[in-house]
Amino acid sequence: MSGRALDAELLSFFLPEWEAEAARLAAGGDEAAQRRSLDALRGLASGAEIESLRGALRALDPLPDPFDAAATAAALSAHARAVVAAGRDLPFTEPSAPADGRDAVRTLVVDDSAMMRRLVRESLAADPAFAVVAEAADGREALERIAGQSPELILLDIEMPVLDGLGVLREWALSGTGAVVVVSSAAVPGGEVATEARRLGASAVVGKPSGAFSPDLGERQGEAIRRAARRAVGLPPHGGAA
């Protein structure tokens, strides 16, 4: 299984469908809904001929008790992304626990750009203290994820459709959970937007490269994002791949 090359064109179609279904699994619901999502994921893994994911899903039948749908979805998605990036099947391994023994910090990534969500997610993946359990593409969806997932950390863009990041912060300040780190090119540290974000309760403001398709986010800003994220949830500044 390990090392077998996979069809690149098939993988390009596979990953968006996989992540969408994994997000449905992470969103919760009753056991019947969880089983439907797992069945859909099994079908996708079989169609793409990714034996490592098929094996991981077989291990979930019957469902363990208790079953953490969000953590399972995050682990399955992380492995799917690794397989697609490698272009070949890889052994499935459970995610590492943080070095201090704490459970991984449940994290929500909010950005209207799918590319940026992926880059922010990959930046966090270098630190096992964090597990991305949900994503949102606009402010209204972010509030739904906050209510449904109760994340411990929210990485929040500012310029988004439907409801912008400052609007999210205003509603989050009333009833939301977790800490917020703003990751946005619109919130220049020390500027008006950044000052307002901090006034509304954001723990930190981190810039990101201009433009929706800046491939150097992981290299140039990944460390800044991880440091801000660790400070926001009370962890030491160093951790993961520093």
From TrEMBL:
Keywords, sorted A to Z: Phosphoprotein
Modification 4-aspartylphosphate occurs at: D157
Entry keyword annotation includes Nucleotide-binding: no
Phosphoprotein in keyword set: yes
Span of domain Response regulatory: 106-223
SMART domains: REC
Matches recorded under InterPro entries: CheY-like_superfamily, Sig_transdc_resp-reg_receiver
Full protein name: Response regulator
Organism this protein belongs to: Pararoseomonas baculiformis
Lineage: Bacteria, Pseudomonadati, Pseudomonadota, Alphaproteobacteria, Acetobacterales
